Amino acid sequence: MLCAHLADEEATLTYGRTLASVMPERLIILLHGDLGAGKTTLTRGLLRGLDYTGRVKSPTYTLVESYKDSRIVVYHFDFYRFTHAEEFLEAGLDEYFQGPGLRLVEWPERAGPYLPPADLAIRLRIADDGGRTLDLQALTPEGRTCVDRLSPSPRA
User: Fold this and answer.
1) Which has the closest alpha carbon to 28: 121, 146, 156?
2) Is 56 helix (H, G, I), strand (E, B) or coil?
3) HEC states along 6-27?
């Protein structure tokens, strides 16, 4: 697991750009954190790192925002408004998890067992100093490759 302290919004955007530099063409990333923890800000930074220059907004009401004008196709999901996990299937969102592309999922626990296995899990927390604490955990070999690229030093 990698941990980082992100002092402010700019640091969160920068970390997102750094993440973009290690992303393969296909990956599922779970974004955990309370409201206002920085999930969408991190996503905005990642998209900037993939050369996307347009507006990046939270998909809270649309459930998914697609970004096809970036170096990698990106799907950004937000399941905050789900009242039951079956809404994931009812909305046909499972189809977005087929084929190439990067999938960023906010509030993944609300889609429960219907989400395919993720490659990375990122937890953002508001720190006492107003910044953010980020924990990044690899869940698959592809996720491990990303973590290794972020932190090339040997592990114990």
Assistant:
1) 121
2) coil
3) ECCHHHHHHHHHHHHCCCCCEE
In sequence order, the 6+-apart residues with CB closer than 8 A to the CB of 139 are 117, 118, 119, 120, 121
Looking at the DSSP bridge assignments, the partners of residue 75 are 66, 103
Render 121-136 in DSSP notation, one character per residue: EEEEEE-TTSSEEEEE
What pLDDT does residue 72 have? 86
- 67, β-bridge pairs: 74
Cα 124 to Cα 33: distance, rounded to the nearest angstrom: 5
Structure tokens belonging to residue 76: 């950004």
pLDDT tier at 68 (50, 70, 90 boundaries)? confident
